[in-house]
């Protein structure tokens, strides 16, 4: 066995508490190298007296280079001492904190250790998130329900979007169309920023305690939240705590008074006065955007202000959590305090960070419940929409992502195929709705909570910002109602079967050079096979299976013969098969 490929660390995603009784232990080996891995485990104070146990580990994920093995242990006294025995052919290795051994180590105290399963350390994302299907709303472009609060110069609904124009979308418009969301089957909404700001996107906050007057009032938001809750729909707000807007009162004060302002330390100022030199502000900002000055979240007054904001909207308005903009540019200590405040106000609030890359430092249970799962987004788009990954390459990337985080973080991940920051799915797919359906079928059968970007369900197109922020189409004669029915069917299917939400995932077929893939999801005795063809031609998959099956969306029957089931897939086609 290639020893350099074998890796374990007694923390993070390699050894963690899954719940208050269970510890997950993982180890990595070279792909196809080890034939058997056994976990040796026992209590660190009674290894000799009580004796230790052995648990066979299983490969739960693979990528291009490695196998990832996992075992679940429920230690009797919440303490765990453990080591590994790895076998391949005639070779046997033992691994402890001191490295590799060709004989079983005599001293068990040199094994790895999970010292104690403290309930306060258990990472517990809200249980409801695993059962949620989100719908993202860009408020200014969803629906104009109250023309009386329109901004000056508002344009007729449905015009060409630009970075600066307005169409009058507001909270009343959302209330007016909650039936649409209920028919679609979503049970959670993620709103882009709602607070007072000067732009149409509202990421330049002017007042963190006030709903933008062009959207409505704080009372109107409370009415909307109550109406959503009455329909079983949760509400997530966007918090911009990395930076404020240029019209934020403390920043205005610093602009006027410079370093004598009592708010001078609320921001990261490199040089006074605040100005722009050769295109670069003399203060830190979001990117180099002078209208978005970066907040100093190490300042106790800034912390107190923002933490009170976080509490207010949960306790007073009743929202169900926060999506955190530019979350990886804010210090970790602030996010730990933020989590304490939010979870005190509402223990099952969902804390979602906007991070586009590897996010393990934020997913240990002390900061976020989840992040926006852009690595999965890119993998799905590459396979199903762009055709730049084959089935094996997609499976390898998926395996890498499953191994990257604790299982509960994967189960609560925010899985999206488009947003206000990206070109729309239909446009990326070259207006080929077969590719849209294929990508969405993958999204809805993955661990994590799926999110539909407003309008994708009725065929809205659009390139990158501002094209992806066009007005929602409410004329049914211009909506793709067949596509809407497809999305509603996916939503019903996922919400009806736990196996498709947080069941185990196992690959059945993923061959290099082929645009096909199949995986199985199962939980509580339910079993689904998801078969995919991202190629330009029809494909037939012969998959290991027994018993009776049916197409979960179309109802067509399938029967396994001689331990195999044959599935014919059209170009850019898929099937979700349910056993029984």
User: Strand share of the residues?
Assistant: 25-35%
Secondary-structure-based class equals: alpha+beta
CATH superfamily (homologous) name of the domain at 3-121 = Immunoglobulins
Question: What is the global morphology?
Answer: globular
Give the overall pLDDT as a whole number: 97
Report on the structure:
The protein is α+β, with helices and mostly antiparallel strands and 580 residues long. Among the domains are: 3-121, Immunoglobulins (Immunoglobulin-like, Sandwich); 243-294, Oligo-1,6-glucosidase, domain 2, CATH 3.90.400; 500-579, Golgi alpha-mannosidase II (Immunoglobulin-like), CATH 2.60.40.1180. α8 (374-386) runs antiparallel to α9 (391-404) and α12 runs parallel beside α13 (481-496). The longest helix has 16 residues, at 300-315. 48% of the residues are buried.
Draw up the topology in text.
Blueprint: E1 15-17, E2 23-30, E3 36-42, H1 47-50, E4 53-56, E5 58-62, E6 66-73, E7 80-88, E8 91-96, E9 99-101, E10 112-114, E11 134-137, H2 171-176, H3 178-184, E12 188-191, E13 195-197, E14 205-211, H4 218-230, E15 234-239, H5 249-257, E16 276-277, E17 280-281, E18 285-286, E19 289-293, H6 300-315, E20 321-324, H7 332-345, E21 350-353, E22 370-371, H8 374-386, H9 391-404, H10 407-411, E23 414-416, H11 425-428, H12 433-444, E24 449-453, H13 481-496, H14 499-502, E25 504-509, E26 516-523, E27 526-533, E28 539-544, E29 548-551, E30 557-559, E31 564-569, E32 573-579
Parallel strand pairs: 11-12, 11-24, 12-15, 15-20, 20-21, 21-22, 23-24
Antiparallel strand pairs: 1-2, 2-6, 3-4, 3-7, 5-6, 7-8, 7-10, 8-9, 13-14, 16-17, 18-19, 25-26, 26-27, 27-32, 28-31, 29-30, 29-32
